[in-house]
Specification:
The protein is α+β, with helices and mostly antiparallel strands and 117 residues long. The protein has a five-stranded antiparallel sheet with strand order 1-2-3-5-4, with helices on one face. The chain binds adenosine monophosphate. Adenosine monophosphate binds next to loops.
């Protein structure tokens, strides 16, 4: 069951501050508050979904397409499409997910070949 008091729900409601990179009516991209690489961005859909599976099953195809298209637009806007990046979607307990609101991590700015997050 979705917890409306998780930290990303509060960020989406603007109850706690975040460093916004891009926002529209469907999604929000922010800087991770505890970056694990020189560039560490989080993408959050404005939808009450727990994890990757919940997002794919509940969001319509247009929403899913918009989310991943915007993810690449943000990557291009930062210029890291040229240098490379890592995308991670931790999902569930074994996936190491801490915040129960689906999100995508975009990591870049250094060589991340062996780095775990
Ligand atoms: P995950 O482990 O995949 O659930 O990732 C949750 C991410 O949220 C971690 O990378 C945290 O550093 C990040 N995080 C936690 N609190 C905040 C916050 N207030 N603002 C931005 N990022 C946060």
């Amino acid at each position: 069951m979705y917890d409306q008091n998780n930290v990303f729900a509060k960020i989406l409601r603007k109850e706690i501050p975040s460093k916004i990179i891009y926002e529209d009516k469907l999604l929000l991209f922010i800087y991770d508050a505890y970056p694990r690489s020189k560039i560490h961005i989080l993408g959050l859909p404005k939808l009450e979904v727990l994890d990757f599976g919940d997002f794919i099953l509940k969001a319509d195809k247009e929403f899913v397409n918009h989310f991943f298209s915007k993810t690449y637009e943000v990557i291009e806007s930062m210029g890291i499409n040229k240098t490379g990046f890592k995308i991670i979607m931790n999902s569930g307990k074994d996936g190491g997910q801490e915040v129960p609101h689906f999100h995508i991590h975009i990591l870049s700015g250094e060589n991340l070949r062996i780095k775990k997050i």
